[in-house]
Structure formats: C-alpha cells, structure tokens
C-alpha cells in the first residue's frame, strides 16, 4: 500500500482493520474502513471550505475598508481645500470692506474740510459786510475808532501787568500758606490779602495812574459813561486811583543820609558814569578795603533778596569810587591797583528756602527765565540744586529737600477765578458787554 511502518505498527493496524479476526481483510471490511475514513475527512473538508470562505470574506472587507479610507481621505482633502478657498474669499471681502471704509472716511473728511472752508468764507464775508455797514462813530455820542484802539491797547497793557501781579500774589499766598498752615486765622488773613491784591479794578487804577495819558483817559471814559450808563452797571472796572496812593505821592521824601552811613543813598544821589578800567578822572574819594567789603556784603544780601535795584545802586557806588567788580573771578579791583576777593555770604536756611520756593513757583508758572536766574543766584552763593533727587546742598555741608509747597483748595479756586478774568482779552470783554451784537456798547 506504499505505507512504511514497523512490524508492530503494521500488525496493530491489521488487527484494527480485521474486525472478524479471520486473518484476512475482506472487501466489505475495506468498504467500511473507507466509509469511516470518508466520514472523518468530510468535516475537515467542510471546516476547510468554511475557513476559506471566511478568509475570502475578510479579504473583501479589507478591500472595502481600504476603499472607504481612500474615499474619506479624498473628502478631507477636498474639505481642507474648500476651507482655504472660503478663508481667502473672506479675507478678500474684508480687505474690500476696509478699503471702502477708508475711502468713505477720506471722502467725509474732505467734505468736512470743504464745508469748513465754505463756512469760514461765509463768516468772513458776513464780517466784512458788517464792518462795511457799521456806522461811523461820531465824537458826540461814541468814542472814535482811534481812541477806542488806544483804550484797548491801554487795557491790554494793564491786564498784562495785573496778570504778573496775580502770579506774584499767588506765589506769596502759597509761601505764606505753607509756613502758617497750622494757624487757620492767619490762613484766612492771607487768603483775604491775596484776593485783595488780585483785585483787577484797584490794580488797573494804579497802573493807569502811572501813565501820562491818565487824564485824557479819564475824560474820555467819563464822557463815554455819561452817554452809556449801562456800561457802569455791567463793568466791574474802576479807573480811580487809590487814596493811599495819593497820600503816598503827597508825602514828603525822607531826608538824605550821609554816603558813608548809607551807601545806597550815595549811589542813588550820584550819577552813573561808565568808565573804562584804569581811569581815575572824576572819581570819588578812595574807599578802604573794609568799606569795600561792607558794600559788597550789602550788595550780595540785596541779590539774595532779589532786590536788583539796591544791588545795582551799590554797584554804581563802587564804580563811582573806582572799584570794579568781577563776579566770574569773584574779585574786586581798584583803579589804584588794590584788589581783593569777594566775600561769600552765608545764607540762612530760611533765606535758602525762600529762594527755593520762589524758584519752584517760577517753574510752575513756566517762567523759566526767573527760575534759571534764581538757580544762578543760589549757585553764586555756593548752593547746588539737584532737581532729580529733589535736594539742595551748600558748600559748608548743609543740605535739605526741595519740598513742593501746598495750598488750600479754596484759595486755589479763588485765585484761578481771578486769573480767568485777567486772561480775558478786551475783545472778549467788549463782546460780553455788547448786548445787541452790533459792535457798539450802549
């Protein structure tokens, strides 16, 4: 049968196939053995076919899944491309809207400029027509245009001076308020004095009293008010001089003192010659070194107090006696060859504080010229100011902080109200007084 096995195995197989144990294998036994083998092989073949079917089914499913994955990938690619296209379209639409918006705004601005130009031209035309139609003001009823311009000019000058006085009064009030903030009674007194110093009517009267045109101004203004009583009711400006000024003017001058006792009096009484160095012609008597040092000390103290008139007068006294002062080299020289060093006076802390507060007030008023002048004056006295550190130091080792002064809110508001009135131009005040708007005050 083509089967290789051992004798025992062959004997065992033969005994198994020989069911009747006859020692021979008959055809019937072989058929039965074939049927048994077929019965055993048939389930195996069925299982094989089933497995092959399952494998084929799995292959089909894998192929279908692969196709589905490819389709999904293609759809994702198409969707991404669609999103990019939509994003580009939205960006282009946004850019178009922005351009349209910018063009619209530019057109609106140009239109507004044109309207403003047209309104300006129309206004100028109305002003020109109104000026052309304005009747000439005769001297019988109205002030002439020339006189009105002169009054306006005088008024502007007086207001400028009053503004300067207001700044000075504000500075003094701040200083006094800082030094006496612990005393309410003194603070109220300072406030009342500050407001009285800011009185525009009184200050205007004092300023106009010093002008050579005061009499003519009074006559014109009295004539003007005689025809227009409403001006006196609306105006708060008085041009009468203060009685104390008249009393001060009528007061006899004090008697002159000896030049040796008061160098200032000698300087005021003496002329102011301009002499070159080395000229001894027409010079006064020689001064001793002690007298020169004394006058120089008085001059330095006057400079420290910002009394420029006294300082200049003392310098003229020295020049009259042949003494030249070199502030840069801190030297003085006489025409006879003598020389010496300028004595550096020592300012007290109170004097230093006063100068520092004046400088801070000048800086707050944006009066940088005065502030720089005060700084140079302190530098001449050996005092260094460091604005970044808010400190000051002197050559003798003293130092301190530059504390900004404070002021009560009520006083600040009162001073600001006064300054608002002072800052108004004459044209604005005339516009307030002109009820009819015809440019004529009735």
Automatic annotation (TrEMBL):
Residues 80-89, 96-113 have a biased composition (Basic and acidic residues). One of its GO terms (molecular function) is calcium ion binding. SMART domains: EFh. One of its GO terms (biological process) is tRNA aminoacylation for protein translation. Signal peptide: none annotated. Pfam families: CysS_C. InterPro entries: CysS_C, EF-hand-dom_pair, EF_Hand_1_Ca_BS, EF_hand_dom, tRNAsynth_Ia_anticodon-bd. The keyword Calcium applies. Residues 5-40 form the EF-hand domain. Residues 80-113, 230-288 are annotated as: Disordered. Gene3D superfamilies: Cysteine-tRNA ligase, C-terminal anti-codon recognition domain (1.20.120.1910). SUPFAM superfamilies: Anticodon-binding domain of a subclass of class I aminoacyl-tRNA synthetases, EF-hand. Residues 230-241 have a biased composition (Polar residues). Keywords: Calcium. This is EF-hand domain-containing protein.
